[in-house]
Amino acid sequence: MINVSGLTKYYGVNCAVDNLTFNAKKGEILGFLGPNGAGKTTTMRILTGYMPPTSGKASVGGFDVIDQSLEVRKLVGYLPETVPLYQDMRVFDYLKFMAELRHVSDVEEKVDIVLEQVGMVERSESFISKLSKGMRQRVGLAQALIHQPEVLILDEPTIGLDPAQIIEVRKLIQEIGKEKTVLLSTHILSEAQQVCDRVMIINKGHIVAEDTPEHLQTRMVGSRRVTVRIAGETTPAIAIINKIPGILSVKLTDNDAIQFENPTDKDLRPLVAKALIKARFDLLELSSESVNLEDIFLQLTREEPQALSPSEVKDEFLAEEPAGINKKIKKEGK
Amino acid sequence: MRNMWIIAKKEYISFYHSPIAYVIGVVTFLTLGIFFWLQIDFAVQTQQFVPDIRNILDILIFPLLFLAVPVLTMRTISDENRTGTLELIMTAPVRDWELIAGKWLGTYLFFRTIIALTWIYPFVLNFMVDPGIDQSLLTANYLGLSLLTAAMTAIGILLSSLFKNQIAALLASLGVLIILWIISAPAQLMQGVGADLLRHLSITDHYYETFRYGIVDLKDIIYYLSMTVLALFLGTRAVEARRWR
């Protein structure tokens, strides 16, 4: 339904989106995950026909976003990051105006349906300027749904909502995503995990990881990072830990702690403790943490020195420990 | 075309939700009312003067429309740009010219409403003077006024599409309208083609020299219509250019 290949967008000399390639099928909810300024909004704006790319191709429902922009815009429902509302209008009139612009038949009936969907029926006669942030967000969502679009593009759809509303909106997106294509951006990982069929982690205009949330999660949660701190020489201790079967990528951290990955289901800490004590080391600390999506996200998207080009940055991420995991994600994604 | 009407309707109705429109309405009718009363009173006292509706319409054009047009057009596109609703319209299946033309039409219809309401003065005056006022002169004046307002509104919309800041749009359209008003002044000291050109460009000469005296000349109508179309065309290009930035 959405096909993007080699999409690039420059703002002056700044590259916002760099050679992005992905696609989304009908009935798929694709999550765009990334820090601010990663290029999520720019990509969405290109897909909705708001602005053309500098180079590359993008199509929605088989229509090219530049050459057949009007056709694309008919197919797409879009909720921009700053919810676009006319403050001086009533909720009902605003949705009616949007429905008319979209050439919807039975306008008032359709408005009632979306008001019901987003739970704003009792506020339909309120002026938009009098609504709370969460309510405005819901009106914005209603506007994107008014013409029952084949493709729904939502830029941070749950921002500003209270927890109960977030659950409602996520349910609604999942419901819509059964038949329609949904592309949503978020920087809340749990949201991507819950709602999306597939997640793309994007940073500085690049896709740095792409997979189903389940795959990402199994890979991550299965692996545990263990930190060991001992008194005295660390080099012989590393040699000892390295001999324990199942332990991966043992390394010394900057603050003289030993770290290793445990991809097995078993807790290997008792073995490590026994081996170290047997070799007469003074054990100060032995702690375990699971590597979750947050860690991966932070690692994939964290700031790197300016001297490195984006491609070098990616290589660096992949080369670094526990980058073995990232490599796997990357492969899985491809 | 349909989208243009939808946008125009929304724009027209939105004026009635805005206090600025009421302020402009009140100021207009208060000012015109005072001048109307003064004229009648002066005519009654001196018995040597016939009240002329053109004195009222002159005030309507300057300063009222020259101020009201920039004030009401400044927010049309620039405000949509500022609040992000422009993104909404530009990602809806609406052509850029439909947006600009719709905005212009909605605003123009609002001014036409105000202008139509000023008809009350000649209507009343018609009963006060004998043998009534010159209807063809009145019609020519109102036709010219409508065309002048159409061109002024289009210029206001164009400048609103160029700026994200409303005040910048206001000052720019005020500036452009004043320049188009006084542009023929140097022509009095000049001769030849240059002077003719300046006179042709003046937005007010096409009204004050002809329509005001009851003369309906095709070249004036063409001037106002082409000014309107040109400004709306440039406004459309400005919105298109926004996509490429």
Structural class of chain A: alpha/beta
How many structural domains does the protein architecture of chain B include?
1
Beta-strand share of residues of chain A = 25-35%
Question: How many DSSP-defined strands of chain B?
Answer: 0
Q: What is the name of the CATH superfamily of the largest domain in chain A? A: P-loop containing nucleotide triphosphate hydrolases
Count all strands of chain A and give the number: 14
**Biggest sheet descriptor of chain A:** 6 strands, mixed
Radius of gyration of chain B: 19 Å
Mean pLDDT of chain B: 92
Residues in β-strands, percent of chain B: under 5%
The residue fraction in helices of chain A comes out at 25-40%
Q: How far apart, in Å, are the first and last alpha carbons of chain A?
A: 19 Å
Descriptive report:
The complex is a heterodimer of chains A (334) and B (245). Chain A is of the alpha/beta class. In chain A, 39% of the residues lie in helices and 26% in strands. Chain A has 2 domains: 2-211, Rossmann fold, CATH 3.40.50.300; 224-290, 2-Layer Sandwich (Alpha-Beta Plaits), CATH 3.30.70.100. Chain A starts with a strand and ends with a helix. Chain B has 245 residues and is mainly alpha-helical. Chain B contains 11 helices and no strands. The mean pLDDT of chain B is 92. The A-B interface holds A 11, 45, 48-52, 70, 73-74, 76, 78, 80, 82-89, 97-98, 100-103, 143 and B 2-3, 6-7, 10, 14, 17-18, 83-95, 243-245.
In short:
Chain A has 334 residues and is α/β, with parallel strands linked by helices. Chain A is built from 13 helices and 14 strands.
Write the layout of secondary structure elements.
The complex is a heterodimer of chains A (334) and B (245).
Chain A: E1 2-11, E2 14-24, E3 29-33, H1 40-47, E4 55-60, E5 63-64, H2 69-75, E6 76-79, H3 91-101, H4 107-117, H5 133-145, E7 151-155, H6 163-177, E8 181-186, H7 189-195, E9 198-203, E10 206-211, H8 213-222, E11 224-231, H9 235-243, E12 248-252, E13 258-262, H10 269-278, E14 282-290, H11 293-301, H12 310-319, H13 323-333
Parallel strand pairs in A: 3-8, 3-9, 6-7, 7-8
Antiparallel strand pairs in A: 1-2, 1-4, 4-5, 9-10, 11-13, 11-14, 12-13
Chain B: H1 2-15, H2 19-46, H3 53-83, H4 85-90, H5 96-117, H6 120-128, H7 135-162, H8 166-182, H9 193-201, H10 205-208, H11 218-244
